[in-house]
Amino acid sequence: MSRNKVEICGVDTSKLPVLKNEEMRKLFRQLQDEGDDSAREKLVNGNLRLVLSVIQRFNNRGEYVDDLFQVGCIGLMKSIDNFDLSHNVKFSTYAVPMIIGEIRRYLRDNNPIRVSRSLRDIAYKALQVRERLISETSKEPTAEDIAKVLEVPHEEIVFALDAIQDPVSLFEPIYNDGGDPIYVMDQISDERNTDSQWIEELALKEGMRRLNDREKMILRKRFFQGKTQMEVAEEIGISQAQVSRLEKAAIKQMNKNIHQ
Amino acid sequence: MDETVKLNHTCVICDQEKNRGIHLYTKFICLDCERKVISTSTSDPDYAFYVKKLKSIHTPPLYS
């Protein structure tokens, strides 16, 4: 008896009972002839290893594995209820595809974003090709490389790979040193507040600095407060034509100031 | 197993005490809930609820 504990999904595999084929057939007969609950209980628990082995196939596919054990158990219970002894096959022969089917359906129906079957297929093929190209050339292939192998437009590859990305919460922590954690949100740049805009603002400020007060006021009212020439004219007691002229002159002056 | 022994088991899904049902690994599922779970399709909104409830069969409760 090995002392090594193998734990899958929090289930200690060494504690799970194992049933022999004959025992299993006896239990199935008991269940199907007499409707014996305890026989079903033994069958479910005696086949939990089957569920665990199936889950492991789904382990390294980047899917969310946590709930698969329950789904697998439901699949197992479904297959126990539907198993037909008269087919004379081992229970596992029947149960494994049933459990796999249950998990596949669960994953398909519970994806936060529904992706069409064909797109998903392209994405999985692209991932496979990518793996292969990496091992062959030992460098990351471009979308064009993958597209060439799969003979589809490279936009499609990009689109498909994008589509199968899992959505991530803005509050998903990416780094935590015990203090304030860094969330995904903290690493997303604000597109309205980028460096180039900041530089433009500086230039604008510089351009406006050399204008006289009257011109500054008109520009401020026109472009920062969004008033019409008529409104500005009324406010400072000049005609609209004058506002237009002053505005034009000020902008020209600013242009000169900035580009000189 | 006779029925008196099984009495007073709390079902993980409906949280009611039932005497008929099965033990799945560490927890008990009553016959009625088991029937319901088995006949639920994966696309049914109830399915997610069952999966959540059944999670406790392999994740021990956290004590604080």
Summarize the structure in words.
The complex is a heterodimer of chains A (about 260) and B (about 60). The mean pLDDT of chain A is about 85. In chain A, the strands form 2 sheets. Chain A has a two-stranded antiparallel ribbon. With about 260 residues, chain A is mostly helical. In chain A, strand 1 and strand 2 (about 10) form a beta hairpin. In chain A, about 65% of the residues lie in helices and about 5% in strands. Chain A is built from 12 helices and 4 strands, in the order ββααααααααββαααα. Chain A folds into 3 domains: about 5-110, Up-down Bundle (Four Helix Bundle (Hemerythrin (Met), subunit A)); about 115-185, Winged helix-like DNA-binding domain superfamily/Winged helix DNA-binding domain (Arc Repressor Mutant, subunit A), CATH 1.10.10; about 195-255, Winged helix-like DNA-binding domain superfamily/Winged helix DNA-binding domain (Arc Repressor Mutant, subunit A). Chain B is globular and about 35 Å long. Chain B is built from 3 helices and 4 strands. Chain B has one domain (about 10-60). Helices cover about 35% and strands about 20% of the residues of chain B. Classes of the chains: A mainly alpha (about 260), B alpha+beta (about 60). Chains A and B meet through helix 2, helix 4 and helix 5 of A and strand 3, helix 2 and helix 3 of B.
